[in-house]
Amino acid sequence: MSTLNDFENLKTHLQKVIVGQESLLERLMIAMLTGGHLLLEGPPGLAKTTAVKTLAEAVKASFQRIQFTPDLMPGDVMGSDILDPQSGQLNFVKGPIFNEIVLADEINRAPPKVQSALLEAMAEKQVTAGGKTRMLPDLFIVMATQNPLEQSGTYPLPEAQLDRFMLHVVLDYPTDEEELEILRRDRSHHFGEDKEQLNAFLTPEMVLSARHKISEQYVSPEVERYIVDLTAATRKLEKYDASLAGIVEIGASPRATLSLLHSASAYAWLQGRDFVTPDDAIAMLPDILRHRIRVSFSGRAQQWTEDSVIAEIIKRVPVPMTQTAQTAAQ
């Protein structure tokens, strides 16, 4: 069994290893607690890889980092049949995807064929090769990093694959004070000390137990409707203001609605609550929608971005007065 205190201890440990990046650490935990895949975007050197590796170590999960490069082949990720010279039989050798936490580093440096090869694994938690389907571990999640698309040698991810990621977190450079702390920690070799304390926080079984608890979080009918309204607004912005018509070229799918529900439930649980509020949905909405909507050409001409559209949706969609909020107000 796992408790909230176990995950609070985990977050404390992550904070000892990673300076700042509060949103990143929280989103890493939410992805793990929901079984959702996570896409991290930001320039190199922001501790994306270190954070994911530290998380895997702390939950005693099998971990594999895959460095995506332009010459990577699908078999390098999924595995392939290898001829045994002694028996003359083809034996399947599992690829690095067969781990509980997989870090797909610089995923947008690999060609589209390799990116697409991840689709079945991410969507179905299984791999089909040589006519046989093999299941991936129960805990299986992909945490991918990508560099901004403006950088040379990058390929945009297919929309179908982007939709498989529950969260898309965009990272920025640390503040001057945070960077100073990074420098001091490096000089005093604190990273080595932290790793000695890893004996243990969690196990994959404890994570799966927490996932079950989160699936039982109470969500009122009003909050359910609000979650649906938030994602549906991406497909009919003109409902709230006729001048917004045509700004969004591609709206969010129902998978976004499910992702918002699951992530808001995990966010609420980490706050120590057994119920979900509209604020939980609002907190998770940017990371849920950012990669699932596309601003049209005319929208960009009017200086709209995906993030500004999401902010407008939060402002326009009426927030329900739930029973919990009414009780607090009284």
TrEMBL record:
Cross-referenced InterPro entries: AAA+_ATPase (IPR003593), ATPase_AAA-3 (IPR011703), CbbQ/NirQ/NorQ/GpvN (IPR050764), ChlI/MoxR_AAA_lid (IPR041628), P-loop_NTPase (IPR027417)
Name recorded for this polypeptide: ATPase AAA
Pfam families: AAA_3, AAA_lid_2
Organism of this sequence: Hydrogenovibrio marinus
Residue span, AAA+ ATPase domain: 34-175
Similarity-based family: Belongs to the MoxR family.
SMART domains: AAA
Lineage: Bacteria, Pseudomonadati, Pseudomonadota, Gammaproteobacteria, Thiotrichales
Recorded GO MF terms: ATP binding; ATP hydrolysis activity
Keywords: ATP-binding, Nucleotide-binding
